[in-house]
Amino acid sequence: MVAALRPGRRHLLAAAATVAGALPAQATEGLRSIAARHGVTYGCAVQADWLQTDAVYAAAIAREAAALVPEGGAKWWDLRPAEGRFDFSALDAITGFAAKHGQVVRGHTLVWHAAMRPWTEAALEAGPARARRELEAHLDGVLGHAAGSIRDWDVANEAVADPWNSTELLKDSPWLRALGPAYLDLAFRLARARDLGLTLTYNDYGCEHDTPHDAEKRRRVLALVRGMLDRGVPIDAVGLQGHLHRDAAFSAPALASFVRSLRDLGLAVLITELDVIEPPEPSDPAPRDAAAAAITHAFVSTVLEAGGRAVLTWGITDPYSWANTEPAMARADGLPGRPLPLDAGFRPKPMWHALARAFAGQPWP
Ligand code: XIL
Fold this sequence. Notes:
Structural class: alpha/beta
Largest sheet: 8 strands, parallel, barrel
CATH superfamily: Glycosidases
CATH class: Alpha Beta
Radius of gyration: 20 Å
Strand order of the largest sheet: 1-2-3-4-5-6-8-9
Bound molecules: (3S,4R)-3-hydroxy-2-oxopiperidin-4-yl beta-D-xylopyranoside
Shape: globular
């Protein structure tokens, strides 16, 4: 269950008045400026085609987000459609939009086990020399192209094994099979060598909740980054994806201690892919939104209080969320999920208010 926050009675009443009172139909001020006032960067994942074809979506992104991350567009699948070829069209559309609206862009992601075309998988299977050549060519092409527009990259994504199906530190992946466990060190070293000023981030999921699996995942992520630092590998930040499971156990002290351990290693910590994944019950939107807001507030407040300074949600509006577009993520009862800050009409949901209050250091009733 969500750890109870214990606001003072005065705060509690003030918060209750704000939340229970009429929520504004349209946000007058975006989360980006609310967050900025409190020293926090708020942003979200975007897709280039929606920015280009949906003016209401584009306006919401301009109003709400100070940071963008391509939901696709900067994965191998998109950037490397064929051997020897780069396609920067989606990425350029996003960085162009960001430049126009005074937003920064995070890169996601240089090395991942997923989202590669068959030619890439075949190249990685062709042996370590070929794999290394492809990695170097990728970093040359992508970091070179985006040097002026992206200063923070998820160098590696989801490399740590899942405790429910492996006792290993690293997840099975084409990169691991091609280059062995040193592939992560290599990717971070190559990235730093190409651009000394880039923020190099390790990004992963499954560290958020108070479950035995998440506790073990936190232990493994810490072990991974400690090992990298001991070996002198350049790493600057850890991204916690934050795909929250609405009804899973949450402990602020457990999460705060993890974030502080990372901070003590000199690493920045940010939330990179926040959304709320729902179980099939109930169907009424009001209790679902209330529960999503509560866990969002608890999670974000905890990370910010422990020293995190940036929060990105994995999209902005419910219908465009991967929770609704990916069949594998669908609710068992077929109802659309409500994982993001804005509803289908781009109106702020309780989750939006939970974020605003967490950014301001205010409690949630
Ligand atoms: C997801 C996108 O949201 C989908 O649109 C795409 O089809 C598959 O990838 N963790 C990550 C993201 O790091 O890259 C994933 O994004 C969601 C889980």
